[in-house]
Design goal:
The protein is of the alpha/beta class and about 250 residues long. About 45% of the residues lie in helices and about 20% in strands. The protein is built from ten helices and eight strands. The protein has helices spanning about 10-15, 20-25, 40-50, 70-80, 100-120, 130-140, 155-160, 180-190, 220-230, 235-245, and strands at about 1-5, 30-35, 55-60, 85-95, 125-130, 145-150, 165-170, 195. Strands 1-2-3-4-5-6-7-8 form an eight-stranded parallel β-sheet. Helix 5 runs parallel beside helix 6 (about 130-140) and helix 9 crosses helix 10. The two termini are about 20 Å apart. The chain binds zinc ion (ZN).
Length: about 250
């Protein structure tokens, strides 16, 4: 019944207890595993093979842009050509940690958007302290469906995002007391454009805040959305899952 559109269950931290993580997420009926390395991607393949509730996303992360060569892009292209991934991501721009290679990030971002366009794959967007550049690039280049992952921007930015062929994905931070913009964004976002995620192992929602996050905890995100929108939780979950599955149609 729950949907986790974005989790890193094949990263080392969660993969070392993967059987337990998957066992715990029995109520999560749709899930996308986000891979940022070839190793994480290879771990995800058999998980999806065993259970079709899993989808796989892979892309080169903006923070790694300096290390990414044509060889890396070719490896990713091979997975696309073999129909092994459902979504290209997470890709985007992250100016939070380091602004010394913004141009390299932009170049990598545009290259990967073009790869997604050619394969008609949706893209999952990581946008941190880079709203203007990120939105400009998406407007100019993106031709496939866009997932705004872990959205934490303003209502204004969200409205701009909604003009594109996109869905807005909310994560654990919407449950935090200091998430000032989240209630307004959720209220202003049509329910048909909302999806849920954990971004686990990061950003555990209240009441698990501070613990290692995992897909099972997406339930707290869904509950919070139902609360903000004053809608029945079951209805929200069904709608969110439908919104998520529609991305891949
Ligand atoms: Zn992520």
């Amino acid at each position: 019944m729950y949907t986790d559109s974005h989790c890193h269950i094949t990263c080392d931290d969660l993969y070392q207890r993967i059987d337990e993580v998957i066992e715990n997420m029995k109520d999560v009926s749709s899930c996308m595993i986000m891979c940022t390395t070839e190793e994480e991607f290879k771990r995800a393949l058999p998980i999806k093979d065993k259970d079709p509730k899993f989808k796989i996303a892979w892309g080169w992360f903006p923070g790694d842009a300096k290390k990414i060569t044509d060889t890396h892009l070719a490896i990713l292209q091979k997975a696309i050509d073999q129909n092994q991934i459902d979504c290209l991501g997470e890709i985007g721009l992250d100016y939070y940690w380091d602004t010394s290679f913004n141009d390299i990030q932009k170049e990598l971002f545009i290259k990967q958007i073009k790869m997604a366009n050619a394969a008609n794959l949706p893209i999952a967007i990581h946008m941190r302290e880079s709203t203007k550049d990120c939105m400009d690039i998406l407007k100019e280049y993106a031709k496939t469906k866009i997932i705004f992952h872990c959205f934490s921007g303003s209502v204004e930015t969200m409205k701009e995002a909604l003009k594109m062929n996109s869905v807005i994905s909310f994560a654990g931070p919407i449950t935090y007391k200091n998430a000032r913009q989240a209630p307004d964004c959720i209220k202003a976002c049509p329910i048909e454009r909302i999806i849920t995620e954990t971004d686990s192992p990061y950003l555990a929602p209240v009441p698990k805040r501070g613990k290692q996050n995992e897909p099972a905890y997406v339930a707290y995100v869904a509950k919070k959305i139902a609360e903000f929108k004053e809608l029945d939780e079951q209805f929200v979950c069904e709608q969110v899952e439908q919104n998520f599955l529609n991305i891949f149609k």
